[in-house]
């Protein structure tokens, strides 16, 4: 993996993290209801909401850099209560779509492509950033949400892969044989 270009490395991490969610909805979850059961430990949280929220960050980024310049990104313009939050088939299609879009857009992009990120913090903020930084963020942000999915799955007695919801740096530190644990720091 070290021989991959930096953009290819970020694409690999992004698609690997998204593939974990695709595997979850294709092979681990067995009913639509599992997407919508409210967590006892994370009030208002469901597996479906966390999956949709994390996927949205990738979609918003890809749509931003696929549009006209100047590239202005906002992660706050997400759709909520979408079909993928409550339907395994819709979730599967949503993850297949975002993986395809990443595979199409990322190889032609530059890590240094300038973006303006607008964010409500709750105050309106504007930051200069790059495509590479935001692609890295989307992957780590997804891992953060997969860790919450892990908590909810545990409440439902659903067993997940050992690497699901762990940051690549943690997997590397532990010497994990998982895909995201094989890189060397």
TrEMBL record:
It holds the Pfam family DinB_2. Residues 19-147 form the DinB-like domain. InterPro entries: DinB-like, DinB/YfiT-like. This is DinB-like domain-containing protein. The lineage of its organism: Eukaryota, Fungi, Dikarya, Basidiomycota, Agaricomycotina.
């Amino acid at each position: 993996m070290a021989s991959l270009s930096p953009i290819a490395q970020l694409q690999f991490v992004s698609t690997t993290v998204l593939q974990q969610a695709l595997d979850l909805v294709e092979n681990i979850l067995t009913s639509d209801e599992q997407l919508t059961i409210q967590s006892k430990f994370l009030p208002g949280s469901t597996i479906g909401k966390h999956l949709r929220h994390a996927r949205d960050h990738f979609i918003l980024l890809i749509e931003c850099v696929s549009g006209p310049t100047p590239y202005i990104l906002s992660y706050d313009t997400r759709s909520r209560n979408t079909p993928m939050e409550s339907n395994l088939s819709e979730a599967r299609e949503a993850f297949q779509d975002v993986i395809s879009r990443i595979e199409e857009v990322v190889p032609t992009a530059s890590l240094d492509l300038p973006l303006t990120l607008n964010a409500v913090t709750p105050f309106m903020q504007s930051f200069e950033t790059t495509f590479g930084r935001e692609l890295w963020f989307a992957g780590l942000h997804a891992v953060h949400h997969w860790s919450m999915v892990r908590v909810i799955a545990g409440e439902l007695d659903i067993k997940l892969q050992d690497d699901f919801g762990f940051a690549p740096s943690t997997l590397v530190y532990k010497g994990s044989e998982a895909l995201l644990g094989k890189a060397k720091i």
